[in-house]
Amino acid sequence: MASTTANSTVPAAPPIALAIAGSEASGGAGAQTDLKTFHQLGVFGCTALTCIVSMDPEHNWDHRFVPVDPQVITDQIEACATVHTRIDAVKIGMLGTAATIDAVDAALEQYQFPNLVVDPVLICKGQEPGAALDVDNALRAKILPRARVTTPNLFEAATLAGVDEITSVEQLKDAAKRIYDLGVPNVLAKAGPTLGTGTALDVFYDGETLEVLEVPAVGTERMHGAGCTLAAAVTAELAKGAAPLDACITAKNVVSASVNPGMHGNIPFTYVYQGFYRG
Ligand SMILES: Nc1ncnc2c1ncn2[C@@H]1O[C@H](COP(=O)(O)OP(=O)(O)O)[C@@H](O)[C@H]1O
Ligand SMILES: Cc1ncc(COP(=O)(O)O)c(C=O)c1O
Predict the structure, then answer these.
(1) Which residues of the chain have pLDDT under 70?
(2) Prediction pTM value
(3) Cα–Cα distance between 156 and 146 in angstroms, integer?
(4) How far is the CA of 194 from the centre of ligand 1 (A)?
(5) CA 218, CA 161: separation in Å to the nearest integer?
(6) How many CA atoms lie within 13 A of 8 on its CB side?
(7) Following DSSP, what letter does each residue of 78-110 receive, concatenated?
């Protein structure tokens, strides 16, 4: 006779994180990456899609960008906020248009979610710099001040800090401080491998602690989805109750594990796979 084993232990419900982000069809970045990262870190993920991005094989993998109707974004956030009894943390990824920012701003005002992580995606890898700059001011004025943590890359950090360029660790530290002065209590300004240190280097600043977070760089290439993975991992860790600096340290380890050995698609960037991470 077949026997069954009764499991009397009911696992605790996982924390819940919401990603308000774009869809990147190939699964390398955006909401797809956020969900995979949340799952890998033991957090239940839900999403409100802000746009649909499909890379164009005929045109140098440019991003074909289709915004989601603002009312549909509002509806998705409402569904997440009301279906779940609580949302423990929220990641903001690509917003892309001023109308999207207005819809997200209104929803954030309404629901007052805790632990907002803003990845200020002003531009995707491969996009022309001018393409997303029109949303810069709206993002800075409406979304950024709501963030508990923000994770700008080098270009975004320079833009938000109002400096021409960042070419040294000292300039990156200065930019992190300037972004803190905009009203964000925790800033993780990312250089990755681009400052020639041989490491993947980011700077954390919370008004008191100024910490250079460095791990060995995996190769010298930048990676598709690394920024999304990092911000999603910070979000997941905050959802679990981690302090911001600890969440950032764990998130860098998640990124490092995700790119080793990594994946190569046909685009000129390496993909990340969060399933390699073992916490
Ligand atoms: N080659 C690499 N090896 C290890 N970590 C990396 C590498 N490239 C980037 N990172 C890390 O990935 C995260 C995202 O960085 P980056 O690629 O600059 O952001 P974004 O995707 O927003 O442009 C950062 O923590 C950065 O240090
Ligand atoms: C929908 C979406 N969000 C975010 C990003 C940013 O990705 P990354 O993590 O490489 O900065 C991209 C880049 O393609 C994207 O398509």
Answers:
(1) 1-8, 123-134, 222, 260-262
(2) 0.94
(3) 17
(4) 9
(5) 28
(6) 0
(7) HHHHHHSS---EEEE----SHHHHHHHHHHHHH
CA of 223 to the centre of ligand 1 (A): 7
Closest protein CA for atom 6 of ligand 2: 124
- Domain 16-267: which topology? UDP-N-acetylmuramoyl-L-alanine:D-glutamate ligase (3.40.1190)
Overall residue count recorded for the chain in this entry: 279
Nearest to 39 by CA among 268, 253, 279, 256: 279
Among candidate residues 197, 225, 229, the one with its CA nearest the CA of residue 213: 197
- DSSP states of 117-175 as a string? EE---SS-TTS-GGGGGGGHHHIIIIIGGG-SEE---HHHHHHHHT-S---SHHHHHHH
Residue 22 and residue 49 in contact, taking contact as beta carbons nearer than 8 Å: yes
Query: What is the end-to-end Cα distance of the chain in Å, rounded?
Result: 40
Nearest ligand 2 atom to the CA of 22 is: 1
Residue matched to tokens 């969900």 = 35
**DSSP reduced 3-state for 248:** helix
